Amino acid sequence: MSNESGLTHFDAEGKAVMVDVSAKPSTTRVAVARGRVVMAPATLETIRQGGIGKGDVLGVARLAGIMGAKRTAELIPLCHPLPLSSVKVELVPVAPDAVEIEATAKTTGQTGVEMEALTAVSVAALTVYDMCKAIDRGMRVEDVRLVRKEGGKSGLWEAP
Q1: DSSP β-ladder status, 98-109 and 140-150
Q2: I need a labelling partner for 160 at 20 to 30 A (CA). Which of 15, 49, 99, 134 fits?
Q3: CB–CB of 61/91 below 8 Å?
Q4: Residues 6+ apart with CB under 8 A from 117
C-alpha cells in the first residue's frame, strides 16, 4: 500500500485517505497535458467557420478547461485543492479532422498540478463534444495524457 516516496492514499487500516503533504516543501510546479477531439472533417470546418449554433466552440472550450482545472479537487476524489497561479488552455484545429488541446497548469505548493492539467484538457475536450454533438455524434476524445511535469522532489519528467 505504500510507494517509494512513502506517500500513500491508504491509512494503516487500508482505508482511502488524502495524502498528508504537510512535510513536503513548497516549490514551483508546472504540468502540461495534451489530448484531442477527432471528428468528421465537415464538423471541423463548421467549427472553423463559426457555424456551430451554440457559439464560439474553441473559446467556450478554452474557458471550460480553465474552470475545470480550478475545480479539480471537487471532481477527483482525494485530490488536494491547490491555489493555481496560472492555467493556460490552447485549442488548435488540425486538418483534416481534429482539435488538438494543450493545457499548462502552474502553482507554488507542496504537491503537483498534473491532475489540474489533465482535467483542463478533459473538460475542454468534452465541451467541444457537447457543443458539436448535434452534428457529429461520432466524435472521439483521444490521447489525453501528461506530457511534462516539473518541480517537487522528482524534478523534471517528460513523456517519451
Answers
A1: unpaired
A2: 99
A3: yes
A4: 31, 32, 33, 69, 103, 104, 105, 146
pLDDT in tens, 142-155: 999 999 999 988 89
Sheet of 27-38: strand order equals 84-94, 98-109, 27-38, 140-150, 157-158
Q: Which residues are annotated as a binding site?
A: 78-80, 115-116
pLDDT band at 4 (very low <50, low <70, confident <90, very high): very low
CA dihedral 153, 25, 114, 131 (to 10 degrees): -170
Q: Would you say the pTM of this structure is higher than 0.85?
A: yes
The answer to whether 114 and 85 are in contact (CB under 8 A) is: no
Q: Which residues are annotated as a binding site for substrate?
A: 78-80, 115-116
- The four Cα atoms 152, 155, 65, 130 give a dihedral, to 10 degrees, of -120
Catalytic-residue membership of 130: yes
Neighbours of 2 (CB within 10 A): 8
- Catalytic residue from among 97, 130, 136, 143: 130
